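Quick question, first post here. What does this chain look like in 3D?
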Amino acid sequence: MPLLFFVALALAEPLGPLDGAAPVEDEPIELGPPIASGATSSTRPFARWSEHLVAPLHPTTSPWSVSSTLTLGLAWDREPDWSIAVEGRLRHRVAAALASLDLPPGAADTIAGRFTPELRRAVIRWRPGPELAVGLDRLRLGRSQLARPLDRLNPSDWREGPLGPEGGERRPVPLVSVRNPLGRGELLLAWVPFFVPLRLPMSPAHRSSLELAPISPLLDAVSGPGAPLAEVDDLGALGPSADLRDSELALRWTQRLGDLDLALTWLYQRDRLPNLAAPTQRAHQHVLGLDLAVPIGPVRAVAEAAVILAQRNWLASPGLPTARHPMVHATLEAAVSPAIFLDLTVGLEALVTLDAPSSTRFFFGGPRDLWLTARMNLLLAFDGILRLDAETRLALTRDDHLTSLVFGARLATDLELSLGLALFGGNPMDGGFGGLYESRDSLWLRAVFEL
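> Answer (accepted):
Ran it through. Tokens below.
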């Protein structure tokens, strides 16, 4: 049910590493040695090939899939003034559904494959003093590792599901940014001239689960009244806008005060939750943010909050009418490394709708939700050859959870093998993260070759 999941994630999108405001790397790529260099410049290529097999634990409700991905890139640096980075990838994915899988009319093919070329980064950076960056890039705002309330510039890509390594990526956006150092901090101004939507799959295996009576107005909104769902393959392709009236702005000030890292953020962006009564209507929102990080003994504590001054919500009544309310998305996290081979992060995440009538129930939960989140990275060998990564998100206000377990082994300097387990649970109609994917538990195997 990716469509339902999109709306929940329009309000709160979890998962991600710690960073105040930096370019995002979905997967760190090791640059190769310079192929050309001078006194102040160097050119470095990188290449990666990966194979990803997903075996569903419920094959009657979810398909098998195999993805092959080739990632190529080039980085050119002329210190200290210029740098250029280009990264692209070509992915081929084949999904195979069992004959017993309940497919809607018009989607009788049980095996489907497609090639997807993507430009992931093409950015020029110039540093005459302040740094000016122009191009296609990913920029993370905030310091949270898990909940990321302020990471709102780059929309998510859910075509491969909500969990890594293939799913839950962030989409690059056309971006112009300026960074100006200010004492022990900096001022960041970013402009996204064109609106970029989330990417959502509409594979035959999931179309039947989307044909729910409460959600049918949204299907009409994105595909046109009466349009067969079989003709809609990627909802993200239906909503991009090159209209400058849909552009987005971000202003962020960071400062170090002793051991305290403090930041204030303001965003002006388009509301990504569609208005079913007027799907083409533009609605923008202001977001005010505060985040800070401070060491407390061996623990690094992070607090982050975003106040969305006008967020559209769907009301749980016939036709799914919408209403706009201010919302607060906040998290408190603690990260600790009790041993050289172990990293732990635990967080408490809250999403609260303000001024909501007491009799109102939102279709996707609320108006007050609370989650417990945790992540563990355990090195099973001190040289990093073997590792175990675990992450979980447990709702405290409803029956809902998701868990990811990944065992990785680096078999050679250029070859890594991973075995993972993704588990979801909850009520599909309650709007929780785990419930919306409760039939998509899977076991997966992935091989990555650094070329």
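Residues 1-33, 99-109, 202-238 have pLDDT under 50 and may be disordered.
DSSP finds three helices and 23 strands in the chain.
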